[in-house]
Amino acid sequence: MKTMTCKQLGGACEKEFHANTFEEISEMSKQHGLEMFQQNDKAHLEAMNKMRALMKSSNSNAMRNWLDAKRKEFEALPNHL
Fold first, then answer.
1. Which of 6, 14, 28, 77 is deepest in the core (most CB within 10 A)?
2. Are the C-beta atoms of residues 25 and 74 closer than 8 Å to each other?
């Protein structure tokens, strides 16, 4: 199991997510983001706007490159119980 924070995953806080795969941790981060969106959390909304801009970037590989970098960061983390 590995741990990443919301901030490490492009978010705005230090909430920790624990998962065995990058896909699992990405889904946890996404659900957290939806909760923060519903709460109209300003810091998270700003982080979401940055992600939205990355997705709409004229560099069509920008989002893929970002995801690849986060996946590599996750894979490099030590496993813990």
1. 6
2. yes
